[in-house]
Structure formats: C-alpha cells, structure tokens
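Notes to self after the Tuesday call (sharing in case useful).
The group wants a holo model before anyone commits to mutagenesis around the pocket. I volunteered. Ligand is magnesium ion. Logging inputs and output together so the record is complete.
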Amino acid sequence: MSDVLVRCDNLVHVYGTPGAEVAALRGVDFVVREGETVALLGPSGAGKTTLLWHLAGLLRPTAGTVEVAGKRLAGLTPRELANVRLRQIGVVLQNPGRNLLGYDTALGNVLFAQRPTRRSHASKKRRALALLDSVGLGGVAHRVAGQMSGGEQQRLAIAIALANAPTLLLADEPTSQLDPASADAVLGLIKQANAEFGTTVVAVTHDAAVGEVLGRTVTIRDGRVGAEGRSGEDYVVVGRDGTVQLPPEMHDALPPGSLARAVRHDHGVDLRRIYDSNAGSDDDEERGR
Ligand SMILES: Nc1ncnc2c1ncn2[C@@H]1O[C@H](COP(=O)(O)OP(=O)(O)O)[C@@H](O)[C@H]1O
Ligand SMILES: [Mg+2]
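Result:
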C-alpha cells in the first residue's frame, strides 16, 4: 500500500467565542493515501469546507492534529507553512473569486502561480496555455480575471491550483457553477493530474457524479465522518467512541430516537428496532425471532 499523505486525528474545530460557539468538526479521523482521489460529501453545514481548510493549513485545530506529507501543519512556522502551501498544495476555495488576482489576466494568473518553479518563462507560458485550453479558456487567456463570469473563474481556479503539479489538490465544490460539459472538462483535468503527476485529490462536492468519478467517497455529517464509499459500495464508519450514523435513507426503518437492540453475531452486529413511539410496539416481531 502507498504512503499516507493526509492524516487527521480526532480533529476538532470550534468557531466563535465562548458563549457563541459552533462545533463544526467533532473528532474527525480521516486518512488519505498518496495517489488517492476522494470526494467529500455531506449536507450543507456538515463541516466539509472547515475540514478542507484544515487540510490546506488555513485554520488551526481547536483539538486534534492534521498532518500533510508527514508534517503536522500546526507545528510549522508561518514561513514553512507558506512554503508547503506554495509548492505542494493546490487549493480551489468555494468562492471562485478568492482564488485569483482579479486585476491580472487569466494567463497572468496561471503564470504567477508557477513562481516557485525554475523553468523558463517560455515553458511556464506553454504550460499555462495548455491548462487554460483544457478547461476551455484558451480563447480568453488575455481577459482580466476579475471580469470573468463565476463559471469561468471556477475553471481558471482549477488551472491555477494545478499549475505547479501539486502533491495535493484540495477543491471545494469545484464544479458548482459549471454546466455539465465544463464540469466534465474540470473533472477530466483533475483525473489527468492524478494520472500524470500522481496528484492526490480531495474534492468537496454535492454532485454524486463527481463522487462516482473520484472512486472513494467520504460523507461528513454533523462534524464527523459518517460513511465511506469505495467503488460504488457504501459503508458506515464506526467512530472511536463506537458511534455509528445510520444513512438517512434508513431513518424510516430505525427513526432517530427509537430504541433498538444491538445483537452480536459472527460477522458483526444487527440493530433491531424494539419500540417506535409513532408506530406502536414492534415487540411481537421481536418475540417471533
Ligand atoms: N467563520 C465561521 N464562523 C462561525 N461559524 C462558522 C464559520 N464557518 C462555518 N461555520 C459553521 O460551521 C459549520 C460547518 O460549516 P462548513 O464547514 O462551511 O460546512 P459545509 O462546507 O459542509 O457546508 C456550520 O454550522 C457553519 O454555519
Ligand atoms: Mg462548504
């Protein structure tokens, strides 16, 4: 198995001040291996963006740790962290306009992103134009980024994030403002970076199709990892305190708040509802077993 690139250990994040706290992450354990492509799914407000910002070194954990490439991000000096972020991590933030220099052209933005690399200007320009081409912006390379549409800025943001062939690409809803064809182009580019440079990818998405393309899905619910999916199969995740989040589509079978009996057997544990205050008692069924 390949090496671990990202490791979150019991990661907790609380926003706000005492008296007005929001616990956005409540103990996330999460490992990504080199070369993996992972989709982070989950309802709005679940903590996906907060988790991504931690992986990018943009937030400090309230508790727990985040390691990228064997380095604990909170232990780095500001200069070391800036270096890791510049050379190893490509980030696409949820708000497209925050990923770019609004006064510079699309081409200028992708050139600027390559400032830590030593290649010649001509070679940087070739790479920039090829990236812009692959997201359908080849024809508007000389347009000022701040004047582009949200969708164009989103595609430009991906080109910027991939400019240095990063070790780790972090993208927050990178296709949210795109039509299906542009979304396919962006996904294609992400997959290509993974195949060509071994770039490891963690992308937040609402789009089940993105999850399918990326292969591994991790579902965040209420600040925790609730479920994992691998090549189409879905699994629940048992938390370190033994908690399990039932998938929402099973809430009719075992509504939140109902009582269930945990029955151990050879391959695991079954949960059997014994009482449901809305539908009366299921005791008969229970006794019949
Ligand atoms: N800067 C902030 N200050 C206070 N609360 C925040 C802030 N950012 C996010 N939150 C809260 O943290 C929780 C998780 O937010 P977020 O990580 O953006 O979720 P998601 O990306 O899954 O929609 C939400 O309840 C949200 O309202
Ligand atoms: Mg978000």
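Two things stood out.
The longest strand covers residues 4-15.
Confidence is low (pLDDT under 50) at residues 281-289.
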